[in-house]
Please model this.
Amino acid sequence: MIAFENVAYSYGGGDLLSDVSLRLAPGSFHFLTGPSGAGKSTFLKLAYAELQPTNGRVTLFDRDVTSLSRDDVARTRRRIGIVHQDCKFLDHLTLAANMALPFTVSDRESDPQDMDDLLGWVGLDHLADAYPLQLSGGERQRAALARAVIVDPDVILADEPTGNVDWEMSLRILTLLVELNKMGKTILVATHDLNLIRQAKAQIQARVLRIAKHRVQLAGADL
Amino acid sequence: MRFPKAKPASPATRALQVVPPSGPTAWLTTFTAGAMTFLCVFALALSLASGRLADRWSDALAKTATIRLSAPVEQVQLQTDAILATLATTPGIASFRLIDDAETRALLEPWFGPGLPVEALPIPRLIEVVEAEPGYDSQGLRQRLAAEAPGAVLDDHTRWRRPLAEAAGRIRLLGVLSIALIGAAMAAMITLAARAALATNSQEIRVLRLVGAKDSYIARAFVRRFTLRTLGGALVGAAAGMAGVAALPAADAAGGFLTGLGFTGTAWLWPLALPPLAALVAFLATRRAAFQKLRELT
Model:
């Protein structure tokens, strides 16, 4: 699905990642952890073709990212749900319109009843007509997750999805991710929150990867 | 939870504005388009008027010539007869006539006032020559006149006509050049405005790219908006320009260049072509700017 083969990424003369090899199997759940600045976000950006490796090969759905045109990248991203810590929205559109964006940009629309169901799933059904700036941090995170999954993607990549919310909301978001994984989605969550990882491992079988010294390694038994 | 099923979007959804509806560049585009089109209407009027003028001057002067005879009093009639005889045998001349004293007096009256004693003044005799198709050989006629009537001078108005026609032609060229420059300036302004709008909305563009929007989709939203704004501004500018031209003093037979600066007949349709043309310029300029900027931004 997503595979890294001896991938390196350098920026400004220094290595951020080097010799990274990894394969995300369909239906797997991975955490990616490491200190701030270790390269977690860079890893995710490589995984959704925002960046291209300076060495090695990244393949998305069996296609080398370097061979993808800009339109191909756009089409590929419709198979990947992306959630960011700062979860950006279009502030002039309502929450419902924002959630529907992945459909809108491909000249499609969703059934209103299905949209209501999705909003209900993330607990935001009462905020469909609210604007992003009216939402709290936790509501924005859940809205971002709903937007990421609306097109039924194969993979969900989440970059610190619980970075701006309290523990209770973190658990709620984790529960949603676990549910998605149980539906067969491949999940990769970058986080530095080790408690969240432990909590997840109590519920599902998740692999934990750690970035250290520019390399990605399988974490030890402590996780 | 079940994932929403997709279906083709309705036109209303397709028209969903994924970029913020207003911004600092919104008024700039509309104003620029309006002002430029307004100026374009006048440049067009200038160009068309100078074209008409060039044609009129050329036509009016090209078909006639004047023979001026200055000779000693005792030679005047003799040389006049010689000239008339020469003209009668010159091919390419449709007609000729001797301008009599009354007509000469009328011609001079605006400068010297009424009651001019033409008989007492050494005023040259004038003979008007109307050219046929094809015309006569003016060089050959000059040589014959020099032989038959040494006091005769053929004036075929070339020295008047050529600079006038050239001047009018250049004014027309300047008008066309002005329209081209105005169009280029408008394209440049709209390009700047579009690039500024894209830069202002870079965050929104990143979001759209993340959710799978193609460049063409994002560009379409900007291009549509800028094209419509330009069309709106240009319509107002064209209407204002046409009203301004219509308010100019009407041309009459004695009208000069300024009073003839307007549209006549079907020429009024020309300014109506400007708003669609401005919209086309905006479409092309915004589209180019959008694709360039999108590659820079994401």
